[in-house]
Design a protein that fits this description.
The chain has 326 residues and is α/β, with parallel strands linked by helices. The chain has a domain of 213 residues: 3-Layer(aba) Sandwich (Rossmann fold). It is built from 11 helices and 13 strands. It is globular and about 60 Å long.
Length: 326
């Protein structure tokens, strides 16, 4: 096979992360050559078996260093940016990773003549009260000014085997006699399956998703925070009490947890701020056809997937009597 008839090259930033690894799988099935740009290529070897021999290349890149971004994008037909952080630590701030980094990826894609698919989040708003939401919103504004034909995707909470939401609370239920209801547990979510998000991204690389738009991706069900925790308890066959935590108390606890060195905070004050607003697909996105359904994908029901990976948190694992909660 000569260089002229090789499959197109797609660079995926953050390809070793939760969403990114599913994107790599979806692109590999489509036959693309894939360059996975990550900070630690030595820890991303698990991605190679997702494609045929030589199809997936691992390269070092850091969104805080522009030269590494340009090198990773060079020669690519399309770029996918899946990089995002849930909390700040050390040099990895929301501004440096989710705003400056995302802008640099867009500039590199433009210079290379490549298309761009950018993964943002519902709640992105340059005027958000949350630092996370502001950085995501400012990134969207900057990217659209650089590459007007970019495809921007805003998923709600993404669920799947490696997720950091349902797994976290299932683990808490395993160890604690109660679960916290932040703000009374009334915040609404629209959990979307990671495989569905990856298919949307794959379709965008195929050129099947119109650019210059912001799509909001949500699953088929809207659940409150409390309903999400109730579902976790149901699937893991556990009985736990709920304790309501006012936003102010939860924010204080998050601030204290964030100051403890060398641990991943279970909650931050910025995440509490995000919980003050519902995380669901907007009416505007529905009316304008900017949803996952409008892209021809039937979103996956959460209860068809959740048991497949939360079974590990049941008292006796797969051998637990599902009709008996403990």
């Amino acid at each position: 096979m000569t260089m002229s008839n090789l499959p197109p090259l797609v660079t995926v930033f953050g390809g070793s992360g939760f969403v990114g690894r599913h994107v790599v799988r979806a692109l590999a099935k489509r036959g693309y050559r894939i360059r996975v740009a990550v900070r630690r290529p030595d820890l991303a070897g698990f991605l190679r078996p997702l494609g045929y021999v030589g199809q997936i290349q691992l390269v070092q890149a850091n969104l805080r260093y522009r030269a590494s971004i340009d090198q990773a994008v060079s020669g690519s037909a399309h770029v996918v940016n899946c990089v995002g952080i849930l909390f700040e630590s050390g040099k990895n701030s929301f501004d440096s990773v989710q705003e400056f980094g995302a802008k640099a990826v867009a500039e590199a894609a433009r210079a290379a003549g490549a298309g761009l698919t950018h993964v943002s989040a519902i709640g992105a708003d340059a005027k958000s009260a949350s630092s996370y939401g502001r950085s995501k919103g400012r990134a969207e504004d900057a990217i659209l000014s650089i590459l007007p034909e970019v495809v921007i995707l805003r998923p709600s909470i993404v669920f799947g085997k490696e997720d950091s939401f349902f797994n976290k609370f299932a683990d808490m239920a395993r160890m604690m006699p109660f679960l916290p209801l932040i703000g009374g547990g009334k915040t609404k979510f629209q959990p979307v399956f990671v495989g569905d998000v990856a298919e949307v991204i794959g379709n965008s690389v195929d050129g099947k998703v119109a650019g210059g738009k912001i799509y909001e991706l949500g699953g088929p069900e809207v659940l409150t925070f409390k309903q999400c925790l109730e579902l976790v308890l149901k699937v893991t066959c556990r009985k736990r009490r709920f304790i309501s935590l006012p936003f102010g108390v939860a924010s204080l606890m998050g601030s204290v947890a964030s100051m403890v060195p060398l641990i991943t905070p279970p909650l931050t004050s910025d995440q509490v701020t995000l919980l003050k607003k519902d995380n669901i697909v907007s009416d505007a996105a529905k009316a304008e056809g900017r949803t996952i359904e409008s892209l021809g994908i039937r979103p996956t029901l959460i209860e068809t997937v959740l048991p497949s990976y939360l079974v590990q948190f049941r008292p006796q694992g797969q051998f637990t009597n599902s009709g008996k909660a403990v």
